Amino acid sequence: MRHLFLKTSVSLAIAAASVAAHAVDGTVTINGAISATTCTVSVSGGGATGTVTLPTIGASALAGSGAVAGSTAFSIAVSACTTSQASMAPYFESAGSSAFNGAGRVTTSVSGVDIQILNSAGSAVDLNGTAAVSAGFTGQNVPVVSFSGSNPSKAATSNFVARYYSTAASVGTGAVSVNLAYTIAYQ
Known about the structure:
Blueprint: H1 2-21, E1 38-43, E2 68-82, E3 87-93, E4 106-107, E5 113-118, E6 145-146, E7 154-166, E8 181-186
Antiparallel strand pairs: 1-2, 2-7, 3-6, 3-8, 4-5, 5-7
C-alpha cells in the first residue's frame, strides 16, 4: 500500500510540474477606446430604432435554396456629430439580435427563410464578423464611411439592403420578423 501511495504521489507531482511548465504560451493584449463622440443616429430617416418592411411575397418567389426576393433599401446614418474621428461604420451585434446562422444571415421563424443584409456594394454583410478585412471595410464586410462636413455638423450614411433568402427547396409561410441590434463604431 505504501508503494502505491508513493507511486501516485510522484505521478501527481510530475503532472503538476508539467502543467505549470506549459501553462502560459503567450499574451493577448486587447486595446480599445471609448469616444466622447455625440451624434444623432437614424434608421432610414427616423429614430435610432427603426423598422424595415419587406414586401409580402408568395412562397413561390423563394423556390429553391439560395433564391432571394423582396429587396428593400435602408440606411443607418449619423448627423450633427462633434468628433475628431474621420469615419464610422455600423457594427451589427449578436447580443440583442435574432440568431445569426453560420452563413451570416438572420434566422427567422418561417421554415426555410432567412433575412440577408447586403452592403452598399451589393455584397452580403457577414453578421458573424468573419469576413477578411479589406481596405475600407470592417470584418463584417460593412463599408467604412467618411464623415462629410465639419464640427459640430459632421454626417455619414451607411446604405444597406434587406431581403428574403431561401435556405431550402421549399419554404414555409407566415409573418417574418427579426431584430438586428447595432452599434456605431467611430474610426
